[in-house]
Amino acid sequence: MTLSARSLLPVNLTLGVLLTVLLAVAAGVAYWFRLSPDPSANRPREIVIAGLRAAAQLAAVSVVITWAVTSLAGLAAFLVVMFSVAVRTAGRRLTTNRTWWLTAAPIAAGVVPTVAALLLTGLVPAKGLALIPISGILIGGALTVTVLAGRRALDELELRRGEVEAAMALGFLERDARMEIARPVASDALLPGLDQTRTVGLVTLPGAFVGMLLGGASPLMAGAVQLFVLIALMAVQAIAVAVTVELIARHRLFRPAAHAT
After folding, report:
1. What secondary structure does DSSP assign to 199-240, as a single string?
2. Which residues make beta-bridge pairs with 200?
3. Residue 165 neighbours by CB distance under 10 Å
4. Which backbone phi and psi does 204 adopt, to 5 degrees?
5. For residue 200, which phi and psi values (nearest 5 degrees)?
6. Rg for the chain, CA atoms, rounded
7. Fewer CB atoms inside 10 A, N or C side of the chain?
8. What is the pLDDT of residues 74-113, one digit of tens each?
């Protein structure tokens, strides 16, 4: 006997009230403890807007998803939108200049080969119901580490500009000097994925596993799918971090001149 999704989380007024309270708590804590990076940033406001956007976007997706899972054109369009939004989001977090679009490289470098391998081996059919959630998980993971690695690397290079110049004075190429500073801090972006994989089943039961169980799959099959997702995600994220650091070390992806290294 399988667990009904309806019994897990009923959609009613109580859920709406609880979500509103949790969003208010998140914004309130950010405001009370001043969890903003600088005076110009308004993190509580960002939290509220993010919550409202998530609600609106998920409502829209609920309408569009039917077309996407039944039409090849709809599936392709949905995946392109997912990728485009990820690139724009990552790029905006890293820089305000024209180089933001280069965040497409680290996101695509790991996601595209992985999804292609799944399709070519027949492990995942070219159907929206299977491809959209897996692609979404991989794109989301690549987006997260691209932002984390990029911000850490750019911040560190700006802070330790003198060390880069000193290394170049000793004969290092600019790319190598910048890489020595950027790579160690950027690698920290892999820690959340590593911790999630190491503690799966002990601390958390990730979404793919729970979703498979709710859909009627056996625990063994659900575990196999989740294992694949976690390992594929680590591969995608490692590639994304490597490409991000390379772009920054080569000064292809950088911040505006006033803050450049």
Report:
1. HBTTTB--HHHHHHHHTT--HHHHHHHHHHHHHHHHHHHHHH
2. 204
3. 13
4. -135, 155
5. -60, 135
6. 21
7. N
8. 889 999 999 999 999 999 999 999 999 999 999 999 999 9
CA distance linking residue 39 with residue 43, whole number of Å: 10
Give dist(CA 144, CA 166) in Å, integer: 32
Yes or no: say if 75 and 132 are a contact pair by the CB < 8 Å rule. yes
> Which residues touch 18 (CB under 8 Å, ≥6 apart)?
none
CB 164 within 8 A of CB 177: yes
C-alpha to C-alpha distance for 258 and 261, rounded to whole angstroms: 9
**Distance in angstroms between the alpha carbons of the first and the last residue of the chain:** 60
Give the residue carrying structure tokens 């709809």.
74
DSSP summary character for residue 160: T
